[in-house]
């Protein structure tokens, strides 16, 4: 079949509209002899039959392997340059007690971005010393709890927060380790980065204000200064933005060394993943190698010791592990400028994955319950919400005989899918099911109608 002119230019007609490109699908996803999608030994139809659809299916071994690989790559590369690395999993991408255990068992720490995320990590039994707390507007209660439980690092995001954290630490008789988040002026997105004197955004403090802020931190006996922090963006494919941010932070880091210890440098998260077959992110070994070279090179230039580097990947740990399964309902062939776009509507939508609507993010899709040798047709996968922007896959090719009742799988939904899910139109949030070695188990149950009604005070309880 030739390209449908309605397709975006990046999307080619696949040779096989049943194929599961390895870069996009979780490690243990493949098709069985009968053509069904199977993940970690559990078939998509079995998951759908037991747990219903929509359902998020997490390939546990995939998530663990990615967590482990990131840690091992950074450990190895920073050992090569005579230092060490600390990896924090950014829980905002997806956090449950189970996932908190997986990543900590694989040797990662956890970055939490609110009191709620902190509560989940603590409920999982994670040692508070392995947590880092972020946020541009942490409440006094969040700070107090973090200090009182002994969170390993609080990332101070504003000058006013220095006094707030110091007061909490004094109240609890603790010395609280802190980082200082810098607004480096570097912002990166998938394929490009922007570097300005100062980025127009709410996070961190300007480079120029940092020496005075660090002096204030150091003046408090209740605070221990760990170092600077920078996070330049998310879904980044290149290392140039990180290099530029590191270069800017380094000059400051070296200057701060004159006034005391600066043991660490935190360069944030943001490593990109493949959502479609045209995405080609850097391999983690290569990222780690470049990071170590950038940091070691910068340290050598300034004649300072190579700091311990902390990173905070979220998406690249959990994103590729998860596939969302839906059931196809209504299909419409919509004629646009003389060409057909097939709208395939499924039983979820922007309430379980808002990224396509919110960011225009691209995903891909496959029929999960069978293979088909029908010619490929351009489809748009839509949800069931009362909103025309409720799209899950803007464009992909599926076998043209896709029909009601087929199971549809969208891969790489593990990051910022469930985490940003909502109850729009009173759809219950789907369950999260972990699959491993042929066994499926619910790690977060789905919401029922009674869950949806349970906070409505007008309902007789
Ligand atoms: N560290 C900090 C300070 C962050 O703000 C973030 C993400 C991360 C680490 C993790 O970044 P990652 O490795 O996951 O890219 N909802 C958006 C992404 C928002 C990212 C917010 N901060 C999305 O769905 O694309």
Structure, explained:
It contains twelve helices and 23 strands. It is α/β, with parallel strands linked by helices. Strands 4, 16, 17, 18, 19, 20, 21, 22 and 23 form a nine-stranded mixed β-sheet that branches. Strands 5-6-7-8-9-13-14-15 form an eight-stranded parallel β-barrel, surrounded by six helices. The protein has a three-stranded antiparallel β-sheet with strand order 1-2-3. β10 and β11 (192-195) form a beta hairpin. α2 (60-80) runs parallel beside α9 (284-302), α5 (140-149) crosses α6 and α8 runs parallel beside α9. The protein starts with 28 loop residues before the first strand and ends in an 8-residue tail after the last helix. The relative contact order is 0.17. The structure holds ligand LLP. Ligand LLP is lined by residues 90, 92-93, 111, 134, 231, 234-235, 268-271, 312-316, 355, 359, 415-416. Ligand LLP binds next to α10 and α11. GO terms for molecular function: diaminopimelate decarboxylase activity. InterPro entries: Ala_racemase/Decarboxylase_C, DAP_deCOOHase_LysA, De-COase2_CS, De-COase2_N, De-COase2_pyr-phos_BS, Orn/DAP/Arg_de-COase, PLP-binding_barrel. It catalyses: meso-2,6-diaminopimelate + H(+) = L-lysine + CO2. Its cofactor is pyridoxal 5'-phosphate.
